[in-house]
Amino acid sequence: MIKYGIIGAGWRAEFYLRIATLVPDTFSVSGIFIRNEGKRQEFAKKYNVPIFDNLENLLNTDFDFIVSCVNKDSINETAQMLADKGVPVLTETPVSTNNLKGKIQVAEQFHFMPRNQAYKKIIDSGILGEVHQVQLSCCHDYHAASLIRFFLGIADEVPTKTTVTLPDKLTRYNCRAGHIAPAMVDSEEKITVLDFGTKTAIYDFNFEQYFSDIRSSRIVIRGTKGEIINNTCTYLKDGLPHSFEIIRNCFGAEESLDGFSLLNITGNGKVLYENPFKNARLSDEEIAIATCLLNMKNYILNGIEFYSTKDAFTDHSLLK
Length: 320
Known about the structure:
Mean pLDDT: 96
CATH class of the largest domain: Alpha Beta
Structural class: alpha/beta
Low-confidence stretches: none
Helix content: 25-40%
Number of strands: 17
Radius of gyration: 21 Å
Number of domains: 2
Strand content: 25-35%
CATH topology of the largest domain: Dihydrodipicolinate Reductase, domain 2
């Protein structure tokens, strides 16, 4: 059992509460510290967990680590304050300093998402040859930077950057709270070219993509012998191009009565990703965050870092 406490009552904190509810055999929330009284009352109606108005009361519970989901302005300060108390911390993004000390890891989830893990399995197989270019249009800023480095195998190299921002007026019909009355908004698209020397990346993103199907995500990964474009991989073998589709296999579709959840991702006759939570109704985002929780417990037990504050600061700086 992985036991964690939570600080904060924002949108991201609820992911950690839902994960514990949906995977109760693996995760347990020891409590949550919420400063705002109105938020405490709201969460008390939604979640059956201890809710505290005092941090020390949370720190007196039985936990393996604390998940910090405070606002961006308080992330660094809160993580360091907890670490100074000897508390292991899994902090939400972004981390904007490289001076944090102690048992701290960062909950950067995008490279743990099933699709991205499947892409990395293809890259590591070698069929694409030397991967030297990524075109990324699926997530913002430091999240995108982490994926770029993940796919290209980049450490902390500093690229040259060229950025343009384009107007992108569109109809907004969805948001974090769900569907809304359609309304025209003046949005913008940011395009940045990163040149690492022998490897390059193109970042292309509009924040509306997170909740809009009329601004689609796109991932292109190119190597010397092939490429991935979204769910299609094409590569050269014995002098001839071969293609295969990257397939999501789910329970609960059509006649399946097993409850809707991801089983695995396959392609080219191989399993590219196996869901460690295949019997739980988790979104890809929740699977990735739950993987961070698994990795945090392993970090505490074995000292194996999975996304350090140095990584987080590198990615925070890359696309600024």
